Amino acid sequence: MEPLIHVRNKVALVSGAAKGIGAACAATLARHGASVIVADIDEPAGCAVVDAIVKEGGVAAFMSLDVTDETQWQATVDTIVDRYGGLDVLVNNAGIAIVHTLLETSLEEWRRVHAVNLDSVFMGSKCAVKVMRPGGRSGRGGSIINLSSVGGIIGAEGLASYCSTKGGVRLFTKSVAIECGRAGYGIRVNSVHPGNTDTPMFRQELEDMRRKGVVASTEEARKFYMDMQVLPEIGQPEDIAAMVLFLASDAARFITGAEFVVDGGLTAQ
Ligand SMILES: NC(=O)c1ccc[n+]([C@@H]2O[C@H](COP(=O)([O-])OP(=O)(O)OC[C@H]3O[C@@H](n4cnc5c(N)ncnc54)[C@H](O)[C@@H]3O)[C@@H](O)[C@H]2O)c1
Question: Which of 94, 114, 178, 227 is most buried by a 10 A CB count?
């Protein structure tokens, strides 16, 4: 019997896939049958992700993509459709965080965080919907999965710009899901909201807390984050990738405009 959750015969583009959650999404989607495009600004790390996937018997390729650049989005999506004959899954994962209080945050930093975390999701989704919808160059519908955060649901000290973008991603997702659903495009759009997840971004945050003297060690910082949760461990990138795989698969065919927390119970309290 065929497994319920798989992405065989699907072409998936994952942004920010050179590291952390994006890299885990790329590996998981490839392991479950998709041809995966690892897109990132970090070419050496992205190529290493591709090599690991190919070594495991998966299908993957690296493409250089700065998600803040609309021309690059268009070129990437066009190239994928030319090479693979279509695009079925877009994971808008690339993101950054600048941890500053409101008074420390410059307008330039605010705009940078919005460019990488939110403008990118707008541009990527627009390019994908254009090709995925009936009559588009791919034309067979699809699944768009946007990485928001628990910071898109609740606020966080020192992260006003980040939370602004992630809250934006949450409602952008629902609005596009409604448009695509009502238009009969066969495109589902959902958001995933990770909690504390052990990636380079998270480890940088632990290190910054130690450096600023908020905690004495990164171990203490890790415990600080763990104490926010119900489950007694920090999430792994693969925990988020499992949700992304489900949403990318046809097992989620009746799910759109929805938000999925993967946070060890952080937002349950
Ligand atoms: N790690 C967490 O605890 C956590 C929690 C909630 C949400 N998230 C979200 O999950 C996503 C992935 O986070 P992560 O922790 O894996 O981050 P990470 O910093 O570990 O990796 C992010 C990747 O995005 C790439 N990237 C950055 N700017 C880019 C750009 N302009 N164009 C293309 N690629 C770019 C980086 O090169 C890197 O490979 C982000 O959207 C983040 O906000 C993470």
Answer: 94
DSSP 101: -
Predicted confidence (pLDDT) at residue 1 exceeds the cutoff of 90: no
pTM, whole model, 2 decimals? 0.98
Which atom of ligand 1 is least distant from the CA of 42? 37
Query: How far is ligand 1, taken at its centre, from the CA of residue 268, in Å?
Result: 24
Q: Are strands 259-262 and 89-92 parallel, antiparallel or unpaired?
A: unpaired
Instruction: Give 226-254 pLDDT, tens digit per residue.
Output: 999 999 999 999 999 999 999 999 999 99
Distance CA(247)–CA(5), nearest Å, equals 9
- Determine contact, residues 249/7, Cβ cutoff 8 Å: yes
Q: What is the pLDDT of residues 200-235, one digit of tens each?
A: 999 999 999 999 999 999 999 999 999 999 999 999
The answer to whether residue 225 is catalytic is no
Domains, the chain, with CATH or none:
11-268 (3.40.50.720)
200 lines ligand 1 (CB under 6 A): yes
Average pLDDT of the chain, as a whole number: 98
State the SS3 of 188-203.
EEEEEEECCECCHHHH
Spatial distance between the Cα atoms of 121 and 110, rounded to a whole number of angstroms: 16
For residue 68, report the distance from its CA to the centre of ligand 1, in Å.
13
Encoded tokens for 92:
């808008």
In DSSP terms, 191 is beta-bridged to 146, 259
